[in-house]
Design brief:
The protein contains 8 helices and 7 strands; from the N terminus they run αααβββαβαβαβαβα. With 209 residues, it is an alpha/beta fold. α1 crosses α2 and α4 packs across α7. The mean pLDDT is 87.
Length: 209
């Protein structure tokens, strides 16, 4: 005989939705749902509204593709940032990781991923054209390739390097304080900060490979 552990379909539905989140198993999902049930109605409504607003009202910056509350993010619209320096990253989490080092004062460009044929992700699936457009239309002096030190990251770096080869700009990459195979967002702030400060010309990394 099959028994349903849930005495409420509403409870089960809420647990199912929480369990869809990455890293959240059903036991954790149940614990979170039961915690919410104990909270005042006002707090639960605020929690729910924050998620709904996040999905409906958030922007992706028209320039760098970072998340933003406006059409252009607070980093791109900050006149104190060095607009001649663009740091190319894979995702929004990488922007947060680099900002936490407090060692970078330029702008960003979020690709939205890396080239990965195994996952069906090619250059056309990323914001490559937008990056080329920025380099061609803005007064960019240097592009820093700050992708994770993985095979996919290195492949994407090489593609961008060739794509920007006709422009009179410096193209650099992170110093190898970031170990090969490391994901950028999990690198500690000191190592990541030093890797930005001591970045090297990308051409040198080609000669060493």
């Amino acid at each position: 005989m099959n028994y349903n552990q849930y005495t409420s379909r509403l409870l089960e539905r809420a647990v199912n939705e929480f369990a869809k989140l990455p890293g959240i198993g059903r036991k954790t999902a149940l614990r979170l749902v039961l915690h919410l049930l104990k909270q005042p109605d006002e707090d639960v409504e605020i929690f729910s509204h924050s998620l709904t607003s996040l999905k409906k009202e958030i922007f992706h910056c028209a320039k760098c593709h970072n998340i933003s509350d406006q059409e252009v993010c607070s980093i791109c619209s900050n006149n104190k940032r060095d607009a001649s320096l663009i740091c190319v990253v894979e995702n929004i989490r990488n922007v947060m990781a680099i900002e936490a080092t407090q060692q970078f004062n330029g702008l960003y460009h979020v690709l939205g991923g890396v080239i990965s044929p195994m996952d069906g992700i090619g250059p056309a699936d990323l914001t490559m054209d937008s990056l080329v457009g920025r380099v061609s239309s803005e007064e960019v002096k240097e592009v820093i390739l700050a992708l994770s030190a993985t095979m996919e990251g290195d492949t994407t770096n090489l593609f961008i390097y060739r794509k920007l080869g006709d422009f009179d700009i410096n193209i650099s990459t992170l110093a190898r304080g970031v170990a090969i195979g490391d994901e950028l967002e999990y690198t500690d702030e000191i190592t990541l900060g030093r890797s930005i400060l001591h970045r090297t010309p990308f051409r040198s990394s080609l000669n060493n490979s």
